[in-house]
Amino acid sequence: MTEPSKKEQLYQLIHANPFISQQDLAADLGLSRSAVAGHIASLIRERRLLGRAYVLPAPRGQRPVVCIGAANVDRKLRTIATLQASTSNPATASETYGGVARNIAENLARLHTPVALLTALGDDGAGRALQDHAQAAGIDTRGSLALADTASGTYTAILDAEGELHVALADMALYDQLTPEFLASRAPQRAAAALTVADLNLPLETVAALIDSARADHAPLVIVAVSQPKMARLPHDLHGVRLLILNRAELETVAGRPLPTEADVRLACAGVQQRGARDVIVTCGSQGVFHTCDSQLVWLAAHQVKVVDVTGAGDAFSAAVCWSLVQNADDSADLTLACRRGLALAAVTVQSASTVAPALEAGLLEAISNTDAAHDPGHAAPLYTTN
Ligand SMILES: Nc1ncnc2c1ncn2[C@@H]1O[C@H](COP(=O)(O)OP(=O)(O)OP(=O)(O)O)[C@@H](O)[C@H]1O
Ligand SMILES: O=c1[nH]cc([C@@H]2O[C@H](CO)[C@@H](O)[C@H]2O)c(=O)[nH]1
Q: Which ipTM did the prediction report?
């Protein structure tokens, strides 16, 4: 098969990312800037491009949440009977779309929130399937990085017969190419965000660059942890971070010690706040969540539900919290309300075999308001050790 002409390749790049700069076009295609300008002028003459535009921000309610991080293929292997270590277990296998940033983006799209995803995709079947699926879900993937001769990210999880995770393996080296330079090349899309959500699949320097720009632009940034080993990607200086969401084991990694009591969790959160993060949410699996409220902690119990598969519960929780944050035009979002919405979406997700529960409706979250707190199962007595 003959390779498309440079002009055609340039057109495809602009089609995929209308924000792309002439400098990036020149670098990607191995052309000079003047050759790029010549092709653009020719495409305008042919009316395949209608001109070069100034980009104005959309009205607030239509500005997207921009999610930055992983889009993986998840392989889940679930034992049929009780899982036994160091031997072969009869199991069933399934494949779904995953990656923390992608899962959050899909949850938000299903809740009818405008959302864009900046990720890296390989040039394999998985990359094309991830791209098609995201587009069909209504996620704007035009700013994502298409990598030649690279396999897409994969996550392989071993679940027991009850749907609880035993071990998981993450093959995701391609996200190391989501560098600060890549971020800079997507500055126009990022500037349009109502909220930026970054997962810790990103390299440390990239997360630091996102924090720097959130601080400089006074723009809200939520950071979502993905695993204990990848807590090493959390920069020390967190000034500019609106919210850090992580599970208790990940907070233990940050603290460098076990956190068996509520007082331990409070101290560890205070440490993260001293590093500059405004708020912290600590998810505690089937028990519930803590969130900071100035120097105090608020505890909310999880819904008691029958688990089908826990994969994606944390991402659904994070998506509902982000959904809640963008409902307020000012900075007055109520974190307790956001977490109650998170618990509700996570409960729906653990009861579904899918990583992102299908058939979500924003009404599910809208129905949870400040006025119904007393009737909410999320306000049951703490199950967590409090001494
Ligand atoms: N067994 C469960 N029953 C009810 N709710 C659950 C259960 N497990 C998780 N959840 C809900 O999901 C939220 C996030 O779970 P968890 O603390 O395990 O996060 P996570 O480790 O990031 O999850 P994951 O990696 O599976 O997406 C919890 O706060 C809770 O609301
Ligand atoms: O290192 C990582 N492990 C797991 C995930 C993703 O977490 C999801 C479940 O919460 C799952 O979809 C997996 O791909 C990731 O993005 N990075």
A: 0.97
